[in-house]
Amino acid sequence: MPSLTRHLIFFGIGAGLAALVLFVYTQYRRLEQGNTRPTAKAPTTQQRQRTSSQSPILGRLRRDGLRLQPSGRSDSSDVLSPGQFTRPEVKRAYQIARKIPATLNKLYCWCKCENRGIHRSNLACFEDQMAARCAVCLGTAKIAYEMKQKGVTDPAKIQAAVDKEWGPKWARNQQQNQPG
Q1: CB 135 within 8 A of CB 143
Q2: 31: Cβ contacts below 8 Å, ≥ 6 apart
Q3: How far is 171 from 160, CA to CA, in rounded Å?
Q4: Model pTM?
Q5: At residue 60, what are phi and psi to the nearest 5 degrees?
Q6: Which of 47, 79, 109, 127 sees the fewest Cβ atoms within 10 Å?
Q7: Ramachandran angles phi, psi of 29, nearest 5°
């Protein structure tokens, strides 16, 4: 009898472990396939496709000196109204976004907002309240506007200035090693 009890105990432990492994595996598969409950901030399928279709690796320096393939909207129709903000620097940046949307649409923003699957460029940071809370978004627009005011129209040169100010060390090194 003690042998049978011991076998039953081992069988119970084995079955419990197998059930635990199966549970963990199914939870992992659900997360991997995106079958989780939707949240208010979860990007839509269209937003994910728009972001993923731009380039294989956002932020990688391309031959044309840009870090993303400009796509989507390049006008200011979706930029939030500057009047809804109280901080002067935020209000000014949203005004800038309305003045130079095509330029901002070509600039990669180092705030990492693209990781949320919603934003495609610095312009998109101004299509919601992201830029109102982010010095990188605001600073990118300011650099672009100041350079445009000085007559710089090449977005690759503007991106290089943004990289120098806001990019990580590896991005600055890429710009230094860029032929041209």
Answers
A1: no
A2: none
A3: 9
A4: 0.61
A5: -75, 135
A6: 47
A7: -65, -40
